[in-house]
């Protein structure tokens, strides 16, 4: 910018802005409603909220996941105890979901190892492959061939038949 400025073209704002004076003695209704809202609605709600937060700050409770107590297995239920049957069925469904997630996590770890290692995946990801084979075999042994509508009773019967076959095979070896 040149040194010799044209002060008329570029007017400088005043150094002090004058404060506008009220022209009326009637109070502003907006200020009244803001004050009334603050004291009638906002202050009690804020007070209650802060009081609750102070009480909760003393007892920290962390929500990680829901923990269910273990219930008796279906084989431990008494005959005709339908509540025990229902709880055992719910426990079996939770266990099945947990086992499905375990298989999925191990599968994801193997996929990440294969992606990371590239052509060397067969020698560098051998532990993950072995773990996936063990986990899928255990899942297949327990839940395989049950289908979508499988339940705790059919799973228990499958385990019973497998144990009987293993016992029979062991007796035939001797």
Task: Please tell me about this protein's structure.
The protein is an all-alpha fold and 174 residues long. The protein has 2 domains: 29-61; 82-172, no CATH class. Helix content is 63%, strand content 0%. The chain has 5 helices and no strands. It has helices spanning 29-58, 82-117, 121-124, 126-143, 152-173. α2 packs antiparallel against α4 (126-143). The protein is elongated. 2% of the residues are buried. The model has no long low-confidence stretch (mean pLDDT 87). It is a peripheral membrane protein. This is NADH dehydrogenase [ubiquinone] 1 beta subcomplex subunit 10. Belongs to the complex I NDUFB10 subunit family. InterPro entries: NADH_UbQ_OxRdtase_su10, NDUFB10. Its main location: mitochondrion.
Radius of gyration: 37 Å
How would you classify the helix and strand content by structural class? mainly alpha
What kind of sheet is the major sheet?
A: none
Q: Secondary-structure element sequence?
A: HHHHH
Strand content: under 5%
Q: Indicate the mean pLDDT.
A: 87
Domain tally:
2
pLDDT < 50 stretches: none
Q: How many helices in DSSP terms? A: 5
